[in-house]
Prior knowledge:
Number of strands of chain B: 11
Mean pLDDT of chain A: 95
Shape of chain A: globular
Low-confidence stretches of chain A: none
Helix content of chain B: under 10%
Oligomer: heterodimer
Structural class of chain A: mainly beta
Amino acid sequence: xxxxxxxxxxxxxxxxxNSTLRCNFSDSVNNLQWFHQNPWGQLxxxxxxxxxxxxxxxxxxxxxxxxxxxxxxxxxxxxxxxGVYFCAVGIGNQFYFGTGTSLTVIP
Amino acid sequence: EPEVTQTPSxxxxxxxxxxxxxxxxxxxxxxxxxxxxxxxxxxxxLVSFYNNEISEKSEIFDDQFSVERPDGSNFTLKIRSxxxxxxxxxxxxxxxxxxxxxxxxxxxxxxxx
Lengths: 107, 113
């Protein structure tokens, strides 16, 4: 199956700092989503972004499909941003999650 | 805002027992999915379902697993004879069309003793 690698695996930030999370994938895909898994285990949709750039408040994402990577930017981080961030890629109707980036934002 | 719901939120069972996990996808969605997440690990795809049949399945989805859409609203995952290693969070997801955002339910935490 397709390999999905995320970096960094762990990240600790001071509140107010910016960060960039990366997702690399090993094959062409027709779906890509970013999720935030909160401390209660819920998977929250952030972006559906198989290509291009989107922004939603302090978050933005860019996918360069031809180069098989996606980036998630978090600006002015808040303690509520803590949790694990996953990217998930899809080929056809089968999906593969990355191993996640665990983010801790400290006040 | 419509959301995917799952029941129960937690289930404890004995090894070898059958369990059925239930999901109610968002009402106008056509594609349905089950995933699992073993504690501390990544989310793993199990199966996708469209037009009343399995569309794709992973290697994890062996003969012990089955899915069903018994009526117009529910989508179920059955594990016939649970093993210790089936202990995990099970997520259901749905989406409207073949390309588009998947929406996840809150999960069922299954513990096999």
